[in-house]
Automatic annotation (TrEMBL):
It comes from Microbacterium radiodurans. PANTHER family: ACETYLTRANSFERASE-RELATED (PTHR43328), N-ACETYLTRANSFERASE DOMAIN-CONTAINING PROTEIN (PTHR43328:SF1). This is GNAT family N-acetyltransferase. Keywords: Transferase. GO terms for molecular function: acyltransferase activity, transferring groups other than amino-acyl groups. Residues 4-159 form the N-acetyltransferase domain.
């Protein structure tokens, strides 16, 4: 497998991230997206807000040094959550699983949570391969689908030795 790594987000990454996140098929898969994933102005506002927030750690995922996606940790209501998104050209060969492994190694806080559309089988597989397991289901509005759908909440618990 190619070498997967995480690096800090850079100004020059914005175009690639927008292109990736505005892909209609990818947005439909992720489901819980911006109201209009194709709105560049709204994306730029969202990006600036997250980059200015010290509770958000956003990384670019690289595969052999090239842009392959994003992985991030952020805080919602005191819960630490993770998320990831892999560009179409880099999918299907373990990049997301490797990126999540690196992200959770860099995030000291436990438990870590993730929220995924119940039908996003690839994302569920990536999380479960990294030790997350389902704790709850909810009905939530999914902007990219324009309707409420089932959402799975997963947790990566503390290990027995507390790490
Ligand atoms: C979900 C996503 C991150 C997966 O990225 P990826 O690099 O292709 O993932 P990996 O190759 O590491 O692993 C994918 C796993 O899903 C499995 N998978 C893929 N499609 C599947 C499907 N339709 N049904 C069941 N399993 C599936 C693969 O077999 C693999 O599991 P394995 O490692 O046990 O074989 C990518 O499709 C993506 O970014 N999609 C758009 C945004 C998104 O949905 N992000 C997640 C939001 S929580």
């Amino acid at each position: 497998m190619a070498h997967v790594d995480l690096r800090p987000f850079d100004d020059d990454d914005a175009d690639a991230v927008f292109e990736m996140m505005s892909d209609p098929d990818a947005a439909a898969q992720a489901a819980f997206t911006a109201d209009d994933p194709g709105d560049r102005d709204a994306f730029d506002v969202w990006l600036e807000r997250h980059r200015a927030d010290d509770r958000v750690r956003m990384f670019v995922v690289t595969e052999d040094g090239g842009f392959a996606g994003t992985a991030a940790a952020f805080t919602v209501d005191d819960d630490r959550e993770v998320t990831f998104w892999i560009a179409r050209h880099a999918r299907g060969r373990g990049v997301a699983s490797a990126a999540l492994r690196l992200l959770i190694a860099r995030e000291a806080e436990r438990p870590l949570y993730a929220r995924v559309a119940a039908d996003n089988a690839a994302s569920l597989a990536v999380l479960q391969a990294n030790g997350f397991s389902e704790i709850e289901r909810a009905r939530s509005f999914a902007p990219a689908r324009g309707t409420e759908i089932d959402e799975v909440i997963l947790v990566l618990p503390p290990t027995l030795d507390g790490i």
